[in-house]
Specification:
Elements lengths: L3 H22 L5 H8 L3 H7 L3 H23 L6 H18 L13 H21 L9 H22 L3 H16 L5
Helix pairs in contact: 1-2, 1-4, 4-5, 4-6, 5-6, 5-7, 5-8, 6-7, 7-8
Length: 187
Amino acid sequence: MSGRPAWRDHVATGIVDTAAQVLAERRDASMAEIATAAGVGRATLYRYFPNREALLRVLAGAGIDELGRRIVEAGLDALPVREGIARLSRAIVTTGRKYIALVELPPGLVDARAVETQIVEPIRALLARGVADGTLRDDFDPETLRATFLGILRSLIKLSIRGGQGVEQVSAAATTAFLDGAARTQL
């Protein structure tokens, strides 16, 4: 009996991982298609996730947690800003390729507080440090810098999925595009 919860967690994790992959390939994939790809019956899928919304909510939580872990592991506070942006780009590209289907989820399915604390705050802090130390230009407000950085990443992640570029290639391109466009100009 004590093994049953671990088994249930394993099945749920497998379904969520498969759903991320299936939805990255085809955003409108049905629950039946996800069940088939996960190697479970539709009844099993619905036992774990009673509807698509429940599956997407868990998938969003998994994506936020994974990206949050990668950001922490990147050690952004201990790095020069340029290297921090490169590591942050790799973390976002690696996670974003897996969870690309979550980019346009309705706000009610995403834990906004988790996004803020695990993702947005560390990005804001790194960019603010870059402005303060002169690595990044100070004539853009912090939200413009953040939106530009994330917009470049989002676009390149989508392009990489279609074009087959790898994580390193995409994250290097995003880092270069952002830093060259956001670097302080010398007068």
